[in-house]
Known about the structure:
Blueprint: H1 9-20, H2 32-40, H3 42-53, H4 55-63
Amino acid sequence: MKNVKKVSVKAVKNREEELLSLFGPSKTNVPTESLSYIRKNPKRFVQKITEIYGLNSVVKWVGEKA
Length: 66
């Protein structure tokens, strides 16, 4: 049997609230399903952003201070 790490409902909600902050003023229009997808598939989400904008842009953004 696999070792499955259980995450509390509170931790999930906190992550989804943090993800909402990515969307700025539009955060009230982000579907819950989208937040859940990003939370469950962060690697795929980042890979897709990298495909769209290019690795150089993503690396530049990550290196910049907010």
